[in-house]
Amino acid sequence: MSEPIHIENLIPPEALPTRRLLEAIAGHDRICDVATSLSLRSLADKTIDELRDEGVPPGAAKRVACAFELSRRVGVARCEPLGQLRSSREIFDHLHPRLRDLPVEQFLGIYVNGKNRVIRELMISQGILTASLVHPREVFAPAIRLRAAGIILAHNHPSGDPEPSAEDIEVTRRLSAVGELVGIRILDHVVIGDGRYVSFLERGMIEP
Fold it and tell me: What is the DSSP string of 82-128?
């Protein structure tokens, strides 16, 4: 005898509410109770053991954790290598899937040639952004080695608010001053939040 067709099985995933998607992945409705008290991002950050502590059965906890991990990897895979940079928005679109869910700040340098084509993208530091953590040596040594003409700075705010802090402004000012001295300009600094960004260039905080 064939398996009975449930009407919900005919609904495409994009039309299902989040609770039903989670239940379909987990195969257990306890995950819906857990999701009620958490944001989707907080749920995604939970380990298998933490989900089990919330009463989610081991198999269901593993399926949910694997689904979120797969989603993260899809986001990274969509970050195609940058070619020629045309706007701050392109930088945001490129980095946002990778940086948006990080619990700590990552500070990146994107090194470009005279035609704004990307030579290399490097992580300079990880942790709370400070002038002591982001030393000019760490930013400009690769630029000199790569014979870059300019550098685009970028970092994320785990809070989701991309408004630059006083430290962000001071670090950018310091690096821009060094860039003028060595002839490798800081072209922009893009601060990435949750679905939003702030560009120092667009704000007029860096000379075009």
Answer: P-B---HHHHHHHHHHHHTT-SS-EEEEEEE-TTSBEEEEEEEEESS
Same fold, 9-77 and 88-199: no
Most confident of 20-29, 53-62, 155-164: 155-164
Question: How far is the C-alpha of 131 from the C-alpha of 170, rounded, in Å?
Answer: 7
Length of the chain: 208
pLDDT tens digits, 158-180:
999 999 999 999 999 999 999 99
Select from 3.10.350.10, 3.40.50.980, 3.40.140.10, 3.40.50.720 the CATH code of 88-199. Answer: 3.40.140.10
Domain 9-77 class, CATH top level = mainly alpha
Instruction: Provide the pairing of β-strand 118-126 with 106-112.
Output: antiparallel
Looking only at the bridges linking them, the beta strands covering 118-126 and 185-192 are unpaired
Using one digit for the tens of pLDDT, what is the confidence trace for 87-133? 999 999 989 988 888 888 999 999 999 988 998 888 888 877 665 57
DSSP code, position 198 = E
Please give the structure tokens belonging to residue 197. 């960004």
Whether the pTM exceeds 0.70: the reply is: no
Domain boundaries, the chain: 9-77, 88-199
